[in-house]
Amino acid sequence: MILLDQSKNSWRIELDGESLLLYWESSGLAFCGVFSSNEISSTKPKELQSVFESPTDIKIVGSSRLISKLSSAKWFEALSVSRKIVIDGQGCFVFVPHQRRLLRHKVEELSQVEPSVKSVSKNGHEALGKIQKEIYRVLIVDDSSTIRTLLKKILKANPCLEVVAAVEHPKEVEGAIEKFKPDVVTLDIHMPEMNGVEVLKKIVAPRGIPAVMISSVKMEEGPLVLEALNSGAIDYIEKPALRNLASVADDINKRVLSAARADTSALKNSGLGPVRASSFGQSVLKDGLVLIGSSTGGTQALQNVLQQLPDQIPPILVVQHIPGVFSKALADRLNELVKFEVVEAVDGQRVEPNCVYIAPGGRQMALRVSGDFLRLDVNDDEPVNRFKPSVDYLFNSVPAKIRKKVVAGILTGMGRDGAAGLLRLKDELGARTFGQDEASSVVYGMPKAAFELGAVEKQCSLSKVSSTIAGLFSEKQLKKAS
Question: Are 227 and 200 in contact (CB under 8 A)?
Fold first, then answer.
Protein backbone atom coordinates (compact mmCIF):
# COMPACT_ATOMS: atom_id res chain seq x y z
CA MET A 1 0.00 0.00 0.00
CA ILE A 2 1.52 3.32 -1.10
CA LEU A 3 0.37 6.54 0.47
CA LEU A 4 0.67 9.25 -2.17
CA ASP A 5 -1.25 12.05 -0.53
CA GLN A 6 -2.78 12.59 2.89
CA SER A 7 -3.54 16.28 2.55
CA LYS A 8 -7.09 17.50 3.12
CA ASN A 9 -8.18 14.12 4.50
CA SER A 10 -7.30 12.41 1.23
CA TRP A 11 -5.38 9.18 0.66
CA ARG A 12 -4.25 7.54 -2.59
CA ILE A 13 -3.12 3.96 -3.06
CA GLU A 14 -2.65 1.90 -6.23
CA LEU A 15 -3.98 -1.58 -7.01
CA ASP A 16 -3.30 -3.20 -10.39
CA GLY A 17 -3.96 0.06 -12.19
CA GLU A 18 -7.58 0.10 -11.01
CA SER A 19 -9.04 2.56 -8.57
CA LEU A 20 -10.99 2.15 -5.39
CA LEU A 21 -12.59 5.11 -3.68
CA LEU A 22 -13.33 5.05 0.03
CA TYR A 23 -15.54 7.79 1.42
CA TRP A 24 -15.57 8.36 5.15
CA GLU A 25 -17.86 10.80 6.92
CA SER A 26 -17.77 11.71 10.58
CA SER A 27 -18.82 14.96 12.25
CA GLY A 28 -19.35 16.50 8.85
CA LEU A 29 -15.82 15.74 7.62
CA ALA A 30 -15.18 13.64 4.53
CA PHE A 31 -12.41 11.10 4.11
CA CYS A 32 -11.72 9.93 0.56
CA GLY A 33 -9.14 7.32 -0.28
CA VAL A 34 -8.18 5.94 -3.65
CA PHE A 35 -6.70 2.53 -2.97
CA SER A 36 -4.31 0.69 -5.26
CA SER A 37 -1.53 -1.94 -4.99
CA ASN A 38 -1.56 -5.67 -5.62
CA GLU A 39 -0.07 -6.06 -2.16
CA ILE A 40 -3.31 -4.94 -0.56
CA SER A 41 -4.18 -8.38 0.87
CA SER A 42 -1.01 -8.43 2.94
CA THR A 43 -1.05 -4.80 4.02
CA LYS A 44 -1.15 -4.15 7.74
CA PRO A 45 -4.00 -2.03 9.04
CA LYS A 46 -1.89 0.40 11.07
CA GLU A 47 -1.84 3.06 8.34
CA LEU A 48 -5.61 3.32 8.36
CA GLN A 49 -6.57 2.08 11.81
CA SER A 50 -6.06 5.51 13.35
CA VAL A 51 -8.53 6.98 10.90
CA PHE A 52 -11.29 4.66 12.08
CA GLU A 53 -11.17 5.50 15.77
CA SER A 54 -14.84 4.60 16.14
CA PRO A 55 -17.48 2.87 13.99
CA THR A 56 -18.66 5.21 11.29
CA ASP A 57 -20.56 5.29 8.03
CA ILE A 58 -18.55 3.81 5.18
CA LYS A 59 -19.27 4.06 1.46
CA ILE A 60 -17.02 2.13 -0.91
CA VAL A 61 -17.06 2.47 -4.69
CA GLY A 62 -15.16 0.21 -7.08
CA SER A 63 -15.37 -2.88 -9.26
CA SER A 64 -16.75 -6.16 -7.90
CA ARG A 65 -13.32 -7.74 -8.18
CA LEU A 66 -11.68 -5.01 -6.16
CA ILE A 67 -14.37 -5.01 -3.50
CA SER A 68 -14.15 -8.76 -3.20
CA LYS A 69 -10.39 -8.60 -2.83
CA LEU A 70 -10.60 -5.79 -0.34
CA SER A 71 -13.25 -7.44 1.82
CA SER A 72 -11.24 -10.65 2.08
CA ALA A 73 -8.06 -8.85 3.14
CA LYS A 74 -6.92 -9.46 6.71
CA TRP A 75 -6.30 -5.78 7.39
CA PHE A 76 -9.84 -4.94 6.29
CA GLU A 77 -11.23 -7.41 8.81
CA ALA A 78 -9.23 -5.68 11.53
CA LEU A 79 -11.14 -2.47 10.94
CA SER A 80 -14.58 -1.77 12.37
CA VAL A 81 -16.11 -2.46 8.95
CA SER A 82 -15.76 -6.23 9.16
CA ARG A 83 -18.56 -7.07 6.71
CA LYS A 84 -18.34 -7.92 3.05
CA ILE A 85 -19.49 -5.08 0.82
CA VAL A 86 -20.42 -5.90 -2.76
CA ILE A 87 -20.76 -3.51 -5.64
CA ASP A 88 -22.04 -3.93 -9.17
CA GLY A 89 -22.48 -1.69 -12.18
CA GLN A 90 -25.81 -0.37 -10.94
CA GLY A 91 -25.23 0.61 -7.37
CA CYS A 92 -23.21 0.66 -4.20
CA PHE A 93 -24.03 -1.63 -1.29
CA VAL A 94 -23.02 0.05 1.93
CA PHE A 95 -22.78 -1.53 5.35
CA VAL A 96 -23.35 0.98 8.14
CA PRO A 97 -21.63 -0.60 11.18
CA HIS A 98 -23.09 1.29 14.11
CA GLN A 99 -26.64 1.01 12.75
CA ARG A 100 -26.20 -2.58 11.52
CA ARG A 101 -27.87 -1.71 8.24
CA LEU A 102 -27.09 -2.54 4.65
CA LEU A 103 -28.09 0.19 2.22
CA ARG A 104 -28.13 0.15 -1.56
CA HIS A 105 -27.46 3.38 -3.42
CA LYS A 106 -27.60 4.24 -7.09
CA VAL A 107 -24.46 6.15 -7.95
CA GLU A 108 -24.16 8.54 -10.89
CA GLU A 109 -21.13 9.81 -12.75
CA LEU A 110 -18.58 7.85 -10.71
CA SER A 111 -16.21 8.08 -13.64
CA GLN A 112 -15.63 11.72 -12.79
CA VAL A 113 -13.40 10.57 -9.93
CA GLU A 114 -10.13 10.36 -11.80
CA PRO A 115 -7.80 7.66 -10.35
CA SER A 116 -4.68 9.60 -11.28
CA VAL A 117 -5.67 12.58 -9.14
CA LYS A 118 -3.68 12.54 -5.91
CA SER A 119 -6.14 14.53 -3.86
CA VAL A 120 -9.70 13.38 -4.43
CA SER A 121 -11.53 14.73 -1.39
CA LYS A 122 -13.60 17.26 -3.32
CA ASN A 123 -14.31 15.09 -6.36
CA GLY A 124 -15.05 12.05 -4.24
CA HIS A 125 -17.47 13.97 -2.09
CA GLU A 126 -19.28 15.33 -5.15
CA ALA A 127 -19.53 11.93 -6.82
CA LEU A 128 -20.87 10.13 -3.80
CA GLY A 129 -23.14 13.03 -2.99
CA LYS A 130 -25.18 12.25 -6.10
CA ILE A 131 -27.09 9.36 -4.58
CA GLN A 132 -30.77 8.81 -4.21
CA LYS A 133 -32.45 9.29 -0.85
CA GLU A 134 -32.14 6.40 1.57
CA ILE A 135 -35.37 4.48 2.05
CA TYR A 136 -35.92 3.02 5.51
CA ARG A 137 -37.91 -0.17 5.96
CA VAL A 138 -40.60 -0.04 8.66
CA LEU A 139 -42.19 -2.94 10.55
CA ILE A 140 -45.46 -2.09 12.34
CA VAL A 141 -46.41 -4.18 15.37
CA ASP A 142 -49.90 -3.52 16.76
CA ASP A 143 -52.84 -5.75 17.70
CA SER A 144 -55.32 -3.16 16.41
CA SER A 145 -56.10 -3.46 12.71
CA THR A 146 -57.34 0.14 12.75
CA ILE A 147 -54.02 1.45 14.07
CA ARG A 148 -52.05 -0.69 11.63
CA THR A 149 -54.09 0.74 8.76
CA LEU A 150 -53.70 4.32 10.00
CA LEU A 151 -49.96 3.98 10.52
CA LYS A 152 -49.50 2.48 7.06
CA LYS A 153 -51.46 5.36 5.57
CA ILE A 154 -49.42 7.95 7.47
CA LEU A 155 -46.00 6.43 6.76
CA LYS A 156 -46.80 5.81 3.11
CA ALA A 157 -46.83 9.58 2.61
CA ASN A 158 -43.13 9.79 3.48
CA PRO A 159 -40.92 8.96 0.46
CA CYS A 160 -38.09 7.97 2.80
CA LEU A 161 -40.16 5.31 4.59
CA GLU A 162 -41.45 1.98 3.28
CA VAL A 163 -43.78 -0.17 5.38
CA VAL A 164 -42.55 -3.68 4.61
CA ALA A 165 -44.87 -5.51 7.03
CA ALA A 166 -47.54 -4.98 9.68
CA VAL A 167 -48.09 -7.78 12.20
CA GLU A 168 -50.70 -8.31 14.89
CA HIS A 169 -49.15 -10.69 17.43
CA PRO A 170 -45.84 -10.45 19.30
CA LYS A 171 -45.09 -14.05 18.28
CA GLU A 172 -44.89 -12.87 14.66
CA VAL A 173 -42.27 -10.21 15.30
CA GLU A 174 -39.12 -12.32 15.22
CA GLY A 175 -40.07 -14.00 11.96
CA ALA A 176 -41.02 -10.68 10.38
CA ILE A 177 -37.66 -9.19 11.35
CA GLU A 178 -35.77 -12.10 9.85
CA LYS A 179 -37.81 -11.98 6.64
CA PHE A 180 -38.16 -8.24 6.01
CA LYS A 181 -35.00 -6.84 7.67
CA PRO A 182 -36.64 -3.62 8.93
CA ASP A 183 -34.61 -0.50 9.73
CA VAL A 184 -37.12 0.63 12.36
CA VAL A 185 -40.00 -0.98 14.28
CA THR A 186 -43.10 0.68 15.74
CA LEU A 187 -44.28 -1.20 18.83
CA ASP A 188 -47.66 -1.08 20.53
CA ILE A 189 -47.32 -1.13 24.31
CA HIS A 190 -50.40 -3.17 25.19
CA MET A 191 -50.65 -6.45 23.25
CA PRO A 192 -51.76 -9.98 24.10
CA GLU A 193 -49.24 -12.56 25.29
CA MET A 194 -46.36 -10.09 25.54
CA ASN A 195 -46.39 -6.30 25.91
CA GLY A 196 -44.36 -4.00 23.70
CA VAL A 197 -41.64 -3.42 26.29
CA GLU A 198 -41.04 -7.17 26.58
CA VAL A 199 -40.91 -7.48 22.78
CA LEU A 200 -38.41 -4.64 22.72
CA LYS A 201 -36.16 -6.21 25.35
CA LYS A 202 -36.29 -9.79 24.05
CA ILE A 203 -36.42 -9.38 20.28
CA VAL A 204 -35.90 -5.87 18.88
CA ALA A 205 -33.23 -4.19 21.04
CA PRO A 206 -30.79 -7.16 21.01
CA ARG A 207 -30.72 -6.87 17.21
CA GLY A 208 -29.84 -3.19 17.37
CA ILE A 209 -33.00 -2.13 15.52
CA PRO A 210 -34.38 1.31 16.44
CA ALA A 211 -37.88 1.16 17.91
CA VAL A 212 -40.66 3.70 18.43
CA MET A 213 -43.21 2.91 21.12
CA ILE A 214 -46.90 3.48 20.37
CA SER A 215 -48.88 4.66 23.38
CA SER A 216 -52.39 5.86 24.08
CA VAL A 217 -50.72 8.37 26.47
CA LYS A 218 -52.44 7.40 29.68
CA MET A 219 -50.98 8.36 33.03
CA GLU A 220 -50.54 4.75 34.07
CA GLU A 221 -48.45 4.03 30.97
CA GLY A 222 -45.76 6.54 31.97
CA PRO A 223 -43.52 4.03 33.81
CA LEU A 224 -43.83 1.51 30.96
CA VAL A 225 -42.85 4.09 28.35
CA LEU A 226 -39.87 5.20 30.43
CA GLU A 227 -38.82 1.58 30.92
CA ALA A 228 -38.93 1.17 27.14
CA LEU A 229 -36.86 4.31 26.58
CA ASN A 230 -34.27 3.03 29.04
CA SER A 231 -34.27 -0.39 27.35
CA GLY A 232 -33.40 0.75 23.84
CA ALA A 233 -36.48 2.46 22.41
CA ILE A 234 -35.63 5.67 20.56
CA ASP A 235 -38.93 7.52 20.87
CA TYR A 236 -42.65 7.29 21.59
CA ILE A 237 -45.69 8.56 19.72
CA GLU A 238 -49.34 8.88 20.58
CA LYS A 239 -51.67 6.41 18.89
CA PRO A 240 -53.26 8.23 15.95
CA ALA A 241 -57.02 8.59 15.63
CA LEU A 242 -58.90 9.13 12.40
CA ARG A 243 -60.30 12.44 13.64
CA ASN A 244 -56.85 13.99 14.16
CA LEU A 245 -54.95 12.17 11.41
CA ALA A 246 -54.06 15.33 9.50
CA SER A 247 -52.63 17.11 12.54
CA VAL A 248 -50.45 14.24 13.80
CA ALA A 249 -49.30 12.66 10.53
CA ASP A 250 -46.34 14.99 9.98
CA ASP A 251 -45.05 14.58 13.53
CA ILE A 252 -45.33 10.77 13.37
CA ASN A 253 -43.47 10.70 10.06
CA LYS A 254 -40.67 12.85 11.45
CA ARG A 255 -40.35 10.78 14.61
CA VAL A 256 -40.26 7.43 12.82
CA LEU A 257 -37.76 8.71 10.24
CA SER A 258 -35.61 10.22 12.98
CA ALA A 259 -35.68 6.92 14.86
CA ALA A 260 -34.72 5.01 11.71
CA ARG A 261 -31.67 7.25 11.36
CA ALA A 262 -30.79 7.11 15.06
CA ASP A 263 -27.63 5.50 16.32
CA THR A 264 -28.78 2.74 18.67
CA SER A 265 -25.24 2.12 19.84
CA ALA A 266 -24.50 5.78 20.64
CA LEU A 267 -24.54 5.35 24.40
CA LYS A 268 -22.15 2.41 24.14
CA ASN A 269 -19.72 4.52 22.13
CA SER A 270 -19.80 7.56 24.40
CA GLY A 271 -16.30 7.10 25.77
CA LEU A 272 -14.19 4.93 28.01
CA GLY A 273 -16.86 5.00 30.72
CA PRO A 274 -18.87 7.45 32.80
CA VAL A 275 -16.78 10.16 34.45
CA ARG A 276 -18.14 11.19 37.84
CA ALA A 277 -18.13 14.92 38.45
CA SER A 278 -16.03 16.31 41.30
CA SER A 279 -17.79 17.93 44.22
CA PHE A 280 -19.10 21.45 43.74
CA GLY A 281 -17.75 24.18 45.98
CA GLN A 282 -20.04 26.03 48.38
CA SER A 283 -20.00 29.13 46.16
CA VAL A 284 -21.29 27.09 43.22
CA LEU A 285 -24.00 25.44 45.32
CA LYS A 286 -25.13 28.90 46.43
CA ASP A 287 -24.66 30.95 43.25
CA GLY A 288 -24.62 28.36 40.44
CA LEU A 289 -27.41 27.45 38.02
CA VAL A 290 -27.49 24.68 35.41
CA LEU A 291 -29.87 24.63 32.43
CA ILE A 292 -30.23 21.53 30.22
CA GLY A 293 -32.30 20.86 27.10
CA SER A 294 -32.88 17.45 25.51
CA SER A 295 -35.26 15.53 23.28
CA THR A 296 -35.03 12.19 21.44
CA GLY A 297 -32.82 9.87 23.49
CA GLY A 298 -32.85 12.42 26.29
CA THR A 299 -34.56 10.46 29.06
CA GLN A 300 -31.72 7.95 29.19
CA ALA A 301 -29.10 10.66 28.65
CA LEU A 302 -30.47 12.65 31.59
CA GLN A 303 -30.31 9.58 33.80
CA ASN A 304 -26.68 9.08 32.84
CA VAL A 305 -25.82 12.72 33.57
CA LEU A 306 -27.63 12.97 36.91
CA GLN A 307 -26.25 9.70 38.23
CA GLN A 308 -22.70 10.96 37.69
CA LEU A 309 -23.22 14.18 39.65
CA PRO A 310 -22.12 14.48 43.31
CA ASP A 311 -24.71 14.27 46.07
CA GLN A 312 -24.89 18.06 46.46
CA ILE A 313 -25.59 20.12 43.35
CA PRO A 314 -26.54 23.62 42.27
CA PRO A 315 -30.16 23.90 41.05
CA ILE A 316 -30.70 22.28 37.65
CA LEU A 317 -33.57 23.17 35.30
CA VAL A 318 -34.36 20.60 32.60
CA VAL A 319 -36.53 20.83 29.51
CA GLN A 320 -37.10 17.39 28.00
CA HIS A 321 -39.55 17.15 25.10
CA ILE A 322 -42.15 14.87 26.65
CA PRO A 323 -45.95 14.55 26.87
CA GLY A 324 -47.58 15.89 30.00
CA VAL A 325 -48.57 12.52 31.37
CA PHE A 326 -44.96 11.30 31.30
CA SER A 327 -43.01 14.19 32.85
CA LYS A 328 -43.97 13.34 36.43
CA ALA A 329 -43.16 9.68 35.83
CA LEU A 330 -39.75 10.77 34.49
CA ALA A 331 -39.10 12.96 37.52
CA ASP A 332 -40.19 10.19 39.92
CA ARG A 333 -37.97 7.63 38.20
CA LEU A 334 -34.91 9.88 38.26
CA ASN A 335 -35.61 10.81 41.88
CA GLU A 336 -35.26 7.15 42.85
CA LEU A 337 -31.79 6.96 41.33
CA VAL A 338 -30.02 9.94 42.93
CA LYS A 339 -29.52 11.38 46.43
CA PHE A 340 -30.62 14.93 45.59
CA GLU A 341 -34.24 15.70 44.73
CA VAL A 342 -35.80 15.48 41.24
CA VAL A 343 -39.29 16.93 40.84
CA GLU A 344 -41.75 17.96 38.19
CA ALA A 345 -41.71 21.76 38.21
CA VAL A 346 -44.60 23.68 39.78
CA ASP A 347 -45.57 27.27 39.03
CA GLY A 348 -44.17 29.72 41.60
CA GLN A 349 -41.74 27.15 42.99
CA ARG A 350 -38.58 28.61 44.50
CA VAL A 351 -35.37 27.44 42.83
CA GLU A 352 -33.08 25.84 45.42
CA PRO A 353 -29.76 23.92 45.46
CA ASN A 354 -29.81 20.12 45.56
CA CYS A 355 -32.88 19.92 43.32
CA VAL A 356 -33.54 19.16 39.65
CA TYR A 357 -36.69 20.67 38.15
CA ILE A 358 -38.23 18.84 35.16
CA ALA A 359 -40.46 21.01 32.94
CA PRO A 360 -44.01 19.60 32.86
CA GLY A 361 -44.93 18.09 29.51
CA GLY A 362 -47.38 20.20 27.54
CA ARG A 363 -46.47 23.36 29.51
CA GLN A 364 -43.80 26.04 29.20
CA MET A 365 -41.26 26.65 31.96
CA ALA A 366 -39.53 29.99 32.50
CA LEU A 367 -37.27 31.51 35.13
CA ARG A 368 -38.09 34.77 36.89
CA VAL A 369 -36.54 36.85 39.64
CA SER A 370 -38.62 37.28 42.80
CA GLY A 371 -36.84 39.60 45.22
CA ASP A 372 -33.60 37.90 46.19
CA PHE A 373 -34.75 34.55 44.88
CA LEU A 374 -35.40 32.76 41.60
CA ARG A 375 -38.79 31.21 40.97
CA LEU A 376 -40.29 29.05 38.24
CA ASP A 377 -43.00 30.32 35.95
CA VAL A 378 -44.95 27.32 34.60
CA ASN A 379 -47.58 28.46 32.14
CA ASP A 380 -49.67 27.60 29.12
CA ASP A 381 -47.95 29.88 26.58
CA GLU A 382 -47.85 28.88 22.91
CA PRO A 383 -45.33 26.32 21.60
CA VAL A 384 -41.90 27.59 20.56
CA ASN A 385 -40.17 25.76 17.70
CA ARG A 386 -43.28 23.53 17.76
CA PHE A 387 -42.41 22.39 21.29
CA LYS A 388 -44.14 22.74 24.62
CA PRO A 389 -42.09 22.67 26.77
CA SER A 390 -39.42 24.39 24.68
CA VAL A 391 -35.71 24.65 25.45
CA ASP A 392 -35.49 28.07 23.78
CA TYR A 393 -38.42 29.29 25.88
CA LEU A 394 -36.54 28.47 29.08
CA PHE A 395 -33.15 29.73 27.89
CA ASN A 396 -34.60 33.02 26.63
CA SER A 397 -36.44 33.59 29.90
CA VAL A 398 -33.23 33.86 31.94
CA PRO A 399 -33.01 37.52 33.02
CA ALA A 400 -30.06 39.46 31.63
CA LYS A 401 -29.23 40.75 35.12
CA ILE A 402 -29.40 37.36 36.84
CA ARG A 403 -26.87 37.21 39.66
CA LYS A 404 -25.90 33.60 39.08
CA LYS A 405 -23.06 31.66 37.53
CA VAL A 406 -24.85 29.92 34.66
CA VAL A 407 -23.80 26.73 32.84
CA ALA A 408 -26.14 25.58 30.06
CA GLY A 409 -26.10 22.83 27.49
CA ILE A 410 -27.89 20.70 24.91
CA LEU A 411 -28.13 16.92 24.92
CA THR A 412 -29.30 14.51 22.22
CA GLY A 413 -32.45 15.43 20.31
CA MET A 414 -34.15 16.07 16.98
CA GLY A 415 -34.46 19.58 15.55
CA ARG A 416 -33.01 22.97 16.53
CA ASP A 417 -34.78 23.83 19.77
CA GLY A 418 -32.39 25.48 22.23
CA ALA A 419 -29.68 26.55 19.78
CA ALA A 420 -30.64 30.24 19.58
CA GLY A 421 -31.32 30.46 23.31
CA LEU A 422 -27.98 28.87 24.14
CA LEU A 423 -26.20 31.41 21.94
CA ARG A 424 -27.95 34.24 23.79
CA LEU A 425 -26.91 32.81 27.15
CA LYS A 426 -23.29 32.60 26.02
CA ASP A 427 -22.98 35.94 24.24
CA GLU A 428 -25.26 38.17 26.32
CA LEU A 429 -25.13 36.67 29.80
CA GLY A 430 -21.61 35.28 29.87
CA ALA A 431 -22.85 31.76 30.53
CA ARG A 432 -20.57 28.79 29.85
CA THR A 433 -22.03 26.29 27.42
CA PHE A 434 -21.64 22.67 26.35
CA GLY A 435 -23.15 20.27 23.84
CA GLN A 436 -23.24 16.50 23.56
CA ASP A 437 -21.05 15.19 20.75
CA GLU A 438 -22.23 13.29 17.68
CA ALA A 439 -20.72 9.93 18.60
CA SER A 440 -22.69 9.64 21.85
CA SER A 441 -25.94 11.27 20.65
CA VAL A 442 -28.85 9.05 19.70
CA VAL A 443 -29.94 11.89 17.40
CA TYR A 444 -27.35 14.58 16.69
CA GLY A 445 -29.83 17.29 15.77
CA MET A 446 -30.23 19.79 18.61
CA PRO A 447 -26.59 19.69 19.77
CA LYS A 448 -25.41 19.94 16.16
CA ALA A 449 -27.59 22.99 15.49
CA ALA A 450 -26.23 24.68 18.61
CA PHE A 451 -22.63 23.79 17.73
CA GLU A 452 -22.92 25.06 14.15
CA LEU A 453 -24.47 28.29 15.42
CA GLY A 454 -21.43 28.90 17.62
CA ALA A 455 -23.39 28.48 20.85
CA VAL A 456 -21.37 25.53 22.16
CA GLU A 457 -18.05 26.20 23.86
CA LYS A 458 -17.27 22.59 24.73
CA GLN A 459 -18.44 19.42 23.02
CA CYS A 460 -18.21 16.24 25.05
CA SER A 461 -19.40 12.66 25.08
CA LEU A 462 -22.39 11.78 27.22
CA SER A 463 -20.12 10.03 29.70
CA LYS A 464 -18.30 13.32 30.34
CA VAL A 465 -21.22 15.76 30.50
CA SER A 466 -21.36 15.82 34.31
CA SER A 467 -17.62 16.36 34.69
CA THR A 468 -17.77 19.02 31.97
CA ILE A 469 -20.45 20.90 33.91
CA ALA A 470 -18.31 20.81 37.05
CA GLY A 471 -15.26 21.86 35.05
CA LEU A 472 -17.02 24.86 33.52
CA PHE A 473 -17.99 26.08 36.98
CA SER A 474 -14.39 25.82 38.16
CA GLU A 475 -12.86 27.74 35.25
CA LYS A 476 -11.75 31.24 36.13
CA GLN A 477 -13.42 32.94 33.16
CA LEU A 478 -16.88 31.91 34.44
CA LYS A 479 -18.44 34.99 35.92
CA LYS A 480 -21.76 36.26 37.19
CA ALA A 481 -23.82 38.35 34.86
CA SER A 482 -23.96 41.91 36.22
Answer: no
CATH of 271-474, one of 3.40.50.180, 3.40.30.10, 1.10.357.10, 3.30.460.10: 3.40.50.180
With a CB cutoff of 8 Å and minimum separation 6, the contacts of 75 are 43, 44, 45, 48
| Positions marked catalytic | 295, 321, 417
C-alpha of 424 from chain center: 24
For residue 319, which of 406, 407, 392 has the smallest C-alpha distance? 392
Q: Which of 288, 301, 258 is nearest to 460 (CA)?
A: 301
Contacts of 414 (CB under 8 A, 6+ apart): 254, 255, 258, 295, 296, 443, 445, 446
Q: What is the pLDDT, as a whole number, of residue 476?
A: 53
Cα separation, 22 vs 34, whole angstroms: 6
**Higher-confidence position of 152 and 243:** 152
Three-state DSSP at 406 gives strand
E strand segments, 142-268: 161-167, 184-188, 211-215, 235-238
Query: Residue 267: which residues within 8 A CB-CB, separation 6 or more?
Result: 300, 301, 304, 440, 442, 462
pLDDT digits (tens, 9 = 90+) for 141-187: 999 999 999 999 999 888 889 999 999 999 999 999 999 999 999 99
Nearest Cα neighbor of 354 from 406, 313, 316, 306 is 313
Tens-digit pLDDT profile for residues 409-444: 999 999 999 999 999 999 999 999 999 999 899 999
The span from the CA of 297 to the CA of 225, in Å, is 13
**Fold exhibited by the domain 136-262:** Rossmann fold (3.40.50)
Per-residue pLDDT reduced to its tens digit, 198-216: 999 999 999 999 999 988 7
What stretch(es) of the chain map to CATH 3.40.50.2300? Answer: 136-262
